[in-house]
Design goal:
Layout lengths: L6 H11 L1 H8 L1 H4 L7 E4 L3 H7 L8 E6 L8 E8 L7 H14 L5 E7 L9 E5 L4 E6 L1 E4 L14 H5 L11 H15 L3 H15 L3 H10 L1 H25 L2 H20 L4 H9 L2 H11 L5 H4 L4
Parallel strand pairs: 3-4, 4-7
Antiparallel strand pairs: 1-2, 2-3, 5-6
Helix pairs in contact: 1-2, 7-8, 7-9, 8-10, 9-10, 10-11, 11-13
Length: about 300
């Protein structure tokens, strides 16, 4: 059984790390006037829980957009990610937006829903009323990633758009190019090495290259693949350095463990719970032996010496 991917956490991190780029991509219809002078403040969910309760999704990310010169009133964007469209409730989203509007004393609210997959049955509008009158009308901006043609964004200078290339609409023949363009965007548009390492995982998870595809990528894009190897090695050395500085073996083990996990995910896709537990409980000697096995292994079983 494959290890479940925390889409909520992945997208929440992405939005909070790059709020301006996230709005420009996920809410393009409303974000056109958001220039560099505009301030964007994420509202902490902890402040809203007592009022809103626990029934709302973890990813509900309210972003408050303010124009310092006062030419426009503040605008509240409410972003929500839906991995499984069948779970989506427009009633709940409307309720959430109304609560936020009352809590923050504003009627300028833009609801945005990010769908990984498309489902024509999902309602885009909600209307409450009778045959005579409509008493409440509600709709939201929908960003359906799987229905977005990848060609539009292959060379985008928006980092959020580039990182989401694997989630867009593409053909199997484009898969390696899509991965390459996402990595190229990450290395070009994000100068911070720590964030490069962080979002290398994001691209790996949502692309899921096979071993053959990974080898093809390395042969077609040697410069980018070398840079990625350097990032992984940096992560490993930092983990080991932390262990030396603190005088603890755990630091080295953590570095080895993180590096091996990244390599396993890249080769074989998301890991199941048993494999994750095995990595967590491994000794440094075991981690080093498995890393050596990985060089020639064709399966997870061979990595762990079971093939």
């Amino acid at each position: 059984m494959a290890r479940p991917v925390s889409h909520d956490q992945n997208f929440k991190n992405l939005i909070l790390d790059y709020p301006r780029e996230a709005l420009a991509f996920f809410a393009a219809d409303e974000a056109g006037d958001i220039d560099a002078s505009v301030s964007i403040t994420p509202l902490r969910q902890e402040q809203l829980k007592e009022r809103l309760g626990e029934r709302f999704r973890e990813l509900d990310v309210p972003l408050l957009v303010e124009w310092p010169d006062g030419r426009r009133e503040a605008l509240l964007f409410v972003l929500e990610e839906e991995t499984n469209p069948q779970r989506f409730s427009i009633h709940r989203l409307a309720h959430y937006c109304l609560d936020l509007a009352e809590l923050l004393t504003t009627e300028r609210v833009v609801p945005v829903v990010i769908f990984l997959h498309e489902n024509p049955a999902i309602p885009r509008q909600l209307a409450l009323g009778s045959e005579k009158h409509r008493y409440l009308a509600f709709e939201y901006l929908a960003c359906v990633l799987a229905a977005t043609p990848v060609e539009r964004y292959l060379d985008s200078d928006n980092l959020v758009a580039r990182l989401n290339l694997p989630n867009k609409q593409w053909t199997p023949e484009q898969k390696v190019e899509v991965y390459a363009k996402a990595i190229e965007g990450l290395l070009k548009l994000e100068p911070n090495i720590e964030k490069q390492i962080k979002y290398l995982d994001f691209v790996d998870i949502y692309t899921g290259l096979s071993d053959a595809e990974w080898q093809l990528y390395k042969s077609r894009y040697p410069q980018e693949s070398t840079s990625m190897t350097g990032l992984a090695e940096r992560l490993r050395s930092e983990g080991m350095q932390q262990g030396r500085q603190e005088g603890r073996q755990e630091g080295r083990q953590e570095g080895e463990q993180i590096l091996l996990r990244k390599q396993l995910v890249r080769r074989f896709g998301p890991l199941d719970a048993e494999t994750e537990q095995r990595l967590q409980q491994a000794t440094t000697v075991e981690l080093e032996r498995w890393a050596e096995n990985l060089l020639d292994a064709q399966s997870l079983a061979e990595v762990f010496g079971e093939g």
